[in-house]
Write a structure and sequence with these properties.
- With 204 residues, the chain is mainly β.
- 12% of the residues lie in helices and 35% in strands.
Length: 204
């Protein structure tokens, strides 16, 4: 008889424990990605050669000289070129960029030789990964004079949020020189040549 009573009591205890209410806590998780509100445009000089050195440009003058005469090829070559970088300062978003050029001083005026826009070129690349840089599709390397009447327009659809790199340099006469380009030689008039490049970037 004692054994039966013990079993019944144990059963009552188990029923009481199974009736304890569960406690539930529900949490809402949130995260806000800030929208970019500005674009930074910065210029750098890069030395030519096997160990290029990149240096930030102070101010807004991009001096393509000094030009050194190359006796073997009979042309003047630079010891550096420039890259102008345009990118979102912070947050998510896209950018569109327009690049335009205007000729300035031209000692070759009145001759068959061209101005600085014929002697220098511009190329458009974008950074798509930590170590990946590609030419922007549909935007081939060209002479500066080619973006005088028709500025280069790079859309948000083409660039996305990628950093744009605009390379500018003197023609060296290699195979990549755009059609119609000229090198600098002793057939050109001595003197100072210049022009103005305007880069306009907009957060889209």
């Amino acid at each position: 008889m004692k054994k039966v009573i013990s079993l019944v009591v144990a059963g009552v205890v188990l029923l009481a424990q199974s009736g304890i209410a569960a406690t539930t806590a529900t949490y809402k998780l949130t995260a806000t990605i800030p929208a970019s509100t500005a674009v930074a445009i910065n210029a750098f000089s890069i030395t030519t050669g096997n160990n290029p050195v990149k240096t930030a440009v102070a101010g807004t003058t991009l001096d393509l000289g000094p030009l050194v005469y190359n006796v073997a090829n009979g042309i003047y070559l630079p010891d550096h070129f420039y890259v102008i970088e345009s990118g979102l300062t912070s947050g998510a978003g896209t950018q569109s960029v327009t690049v335009a050029y205007t000729e300035g001083l031209n000692p070759n005026s009145g001759t068959t030789k061209g101005a600085l826009g014929t002697k220098a070129n511009v190329a458009f690349n974008m950074v798509t990964g930590p170590t990946t840089e590609v030419a922007v599709p549909g935007h081939a390397k060209k002479l500066l004079k080619n973006i005088i009447s028709t500025p280069e327009s790079l859309t948000a659809a083409e660039l996305g949020s990628n950093l744009l790199k605009i390379y500018i340099g003197i023609n060296t006469g290699d195979a990549s020189m755009p059609a119609g380009g000229e090198v600098i030689s002793n057939l050109d008039k001595a003197g100072a040549y210049d022009g103005t490049l305007v880069v306009t970037a907009t957060v889209v």
